[in-house]
Structure formats: C-alpha cells, structure tokens
C-alpha cells in the first residue's frame, strides 16, 4: 500500500563523520535531536556540445550531479549537528573541516507511526558530504537555531548504488546500511538537553560585544545578567553569525569525481546585530581619518555553546531605519566582518572551555550507536 504523505514524526536524519578518504563503516552514527527541517536538493549538470554543419545538438553531456543537504536544528543542549559532522581536536574552521567528510541518512517510516522507530520504509544516503555553510541565529522572537548546508556528489536511495554497479561511493558505505530509528516519543528537550534556547538564554554577562555599538562597553563590564540588561543602549533584537566555506572541486585526469573539495580561503565571517535604537547608531564617518578599530566578539548561550569570532572584527556596515509616521520604532543594524576566524566549542557554567565528551555525555536516547 502506497503512502499518502510524509510529515515530521515519520522522517529523521542520521550523521556520521570520518576523515577524508575514509569510510563511515564502523563509525558512530548519531541521530541529532531538535531537528526542525532537512532538505535535499539534487542538480544534474548538463553541458551542451554543438557542431558546425547541423542545428541539432551533438551531445548533451551529463556532468557531475550536485547534492546539497540543508538542516535546521534548535539549540537545546543536545549535540549540535556541527559537532556530529566534523572532526579534529582544534576548534577553528580549517582544523575542524579541512579533512572531514560525513555521510547523512534520511529515513522515512510508515505514515501511521507516531515516531521514527524500527526499520524504515525508505532510506536515502548522501555520501561523502562536506560542510559548506554555517549560520547561527539568536532572535528575540523564537528559538535559537543552527543552520548548516553540506555539499557532495553522491546520493543513493536504498541499495540503488549496488544496483547501478557502484561499489566505490565516497564513504565506501554505498547505502546498504540503514540506521535504525530510535525515536520513541519520550524525548523532552529539558531532560535530554538544557531545554530549547531562547532570548533569555544568551549569557550577556559572559559575552563580549563590539564596543562601537553604544553602551556595549558597559555591558561587557557587567558581571551579572541584570547589570548587563540595564547597560544596553541599543536594545538587541537579533544576532546572526554566518560563513560559507566556499567548497571548490579539484579534479585530476583519469577520474570523473573530484578528489577533494577545498575550502576557499580567505573566508568572510559575518556577525550582524539588529537593534531597536535608543539614541541612534552614533557611528561617525570622517573622510579625513580612519574610523574603525578591531572589535572582539564572543557569544555564549546557557546550554554552553560558544561562538568565538576573535578580536579582529571590523564594522563593515551600519544602517538607521524606521521610525516613520506609521508609528514604528527606529532600528539600527551593525554588520561586522572578520576573515577566517570562527571557533565553535563548549564551556561550563563559568564560561571556561570544556570538552565535547563531558559536555554532551553519551545517553541511551541520544541516537549514538556503532554502525
């Protein structure tokens, strides 16, 4: 009997990382919790060749397919997908991502189930994926989220790769393995994690904000959450941090697939603050002198996730908008850029760095299991 639809309780994703050129076989496979969406897009790239002497096409060449997986997850004290998809003992972008690939599975279950458990009806495996885009959002309305996208060239439904005669998928796993779902309707974010993180969960007393924004020097000096709140002059409505690794295919003669998808340094790391303004942006632009200094930016949320953008961030754009006759508020936007620096790690309640193993301990229902 055919399915009528797929909806949120009957599909789930699984992630396994490994060193470039390795395999997910034998590696732990994790089922991230708090996932809000997963999208998979496949483009078949065609290149046309014509010839003198005829109007009809000479050959419509099928080049490499492009596979993109995009995920959104709430920050909730369970392990972010970023840590599931990357390897390396260092926290910087190059150290975590230069030599790391991952496999991503999406399982589909019967529409009359209430949870993704047991053997799936269908599985699609995206093999040999590289992390490409990273975004973290901290809005005043709604939940804090992690948004990632991955790029690759191989996607297999069930055992289709073997049916096609392909026994050398990038991970060496070629979709014969189906992760078994372990969702059982018992997940509660504040039990298996720290609860879904929202506006009150930004540790403003431990964060470091750019001081070119009015009042932020006083906020940085505050030692308590209450003192930090009282010091704000620009009332922050959202913060976003993003970068793209700009993966570039590198080929060699004799092989159809790229042997590596390199990171395209230099990388622009962007951090944007959107505020309701109390006294204007107060940023002057003097054509006779330099106007900017390097700024330090570090964001910490209650669950212990840290986004450290280092001390070389500079303001690239500021805008003053709104306050029109319809009654809206004046808003200011401050956009900062640095190059190549974004360190993502975890900390304890005092803001001191800890380890992933201690911060996200293995628990029965976290989805981690050996393949």
What would you say about this model in short?
The chain contains seven helices and 20 strands. With 371 residues, the chain is mainly β. It folds into two domains: 8-46 and 60-189, Pnp Oxidase, Chain A, CATH 2.30.110; 199-358, Pnp Oxidase, Chain A.
Number of helices: 7
* DSSP, total strands: 20
Radius of gyration: 23 Å
Series of H and E elements = EEEEHHEEEEEHEHHHEEEEEEEEEHE
How many domains would you count in the coordinates? 2
The average pLDDT value, as a whole number, equals: 90
Q: Give the percentage of residues in beta strands.
A: 35-45%
N- to C-terminal separation? 30 Å
Please state the second-level CATH architecture of the largest domain.
Roll
Enter the CATH topology name of the largest domain.
Answer: Pnp Oxidase, Chain A
Q: Report helical residue fraction.
A: under 10%
**Low-confidence blocks of residues:** 363-371
What is the CATH C level class of the largest domain, in words? Mainly Beta
Shape: globular
How is the main sheet built? 11 strands, antiparallel
How would you classify the helix and strand content by structural class? mainly beta
